[in-house]
Amino acid sequence: MTISVENPIFEKVSAFQKKSEDKTGELKLDGGFLIPNMATKDDEAFLAPDMNAFGRQFRDYDVESERQKSVEEFYRLQHINQTVDFVTKMRAEYGKLDKKVMSIWECCELLNEVVDESDPDLDEPQIQHLLQSAEAIRKDYPNEDWLHLTALIHDLGKVITLPQFGGLPQWAVVGDTFPVGCAFDESNVHHKYFMENQDFHNKNYNTKNGIYSQGCGLNNVMMSWGHDDYMYMVVKENGSTLPSAGQFIIRYHSFYPLHTAGEYTHLMNEEDKENLKWLHVFNKYDLYSKSKVHIDVEKVKPYYMSLIKKYFPENLRW
Fold this sequence. Notes:
This protein is mainly α. It has ten helices and seven strands.
């Protein structure tokens, strides 16, 4: 679903975006990427709505409701259990990619069985969120087919909550991600629960840099385990030709303390800063395209099948 209103140009530019316009009116980022000026002759394009599917503000973790209570309990468990030891174990286990052999589209269909318990904005099957994000981006960025496909597949890693993929608890699959092995920044939602995490009191892990060095690059940082890192492994190890920015989006789209709060930037290198520009673009669609209005799957399927064929082998190890 695409929501169209007036004045669609992105107003917020991160500290890493040096904004300039060329003669075509496109927003040009460092590194040569062009982000089209989305104003059309009708001045229509995607703009974030004020309310989520439940009639409340997006990512509101404080409002009183039964769903909010379950979301807070989710984060309590996540913050207590996501440790360096746990992440190391999960990366070793799921890095084997020995759970299943299947195509990208087969995985999309499996996602119909998943509802994200950490998401305060939507309780719809995940495949609808994927298509809503992808179709919104497709309308506004028609020439960036890699970005359309990235939107379609960015959450496929959530299948690890299903029995055939190990049946991990939701706190080990979804929710905001954050680095482990260094101090838990206060920008993390429900930060208070980190005090019960064993790493919180470990002097090797509870400083700003922890076990890392400034500017080391996010690729050298262990993130809390979940669907982001798992899907990144699947993409990389199966030889996808998605560009670096697409793989970065998949791996860090849940890293809200970075791309929304602007924290942990001291760990980034120059490549990270370039790729973050595209993650900022993507995040708007990932968060604000969630809706109760469904996409006609069969109508759009042929287009996405052609992109899958372009960027992925027919079958992948999962």
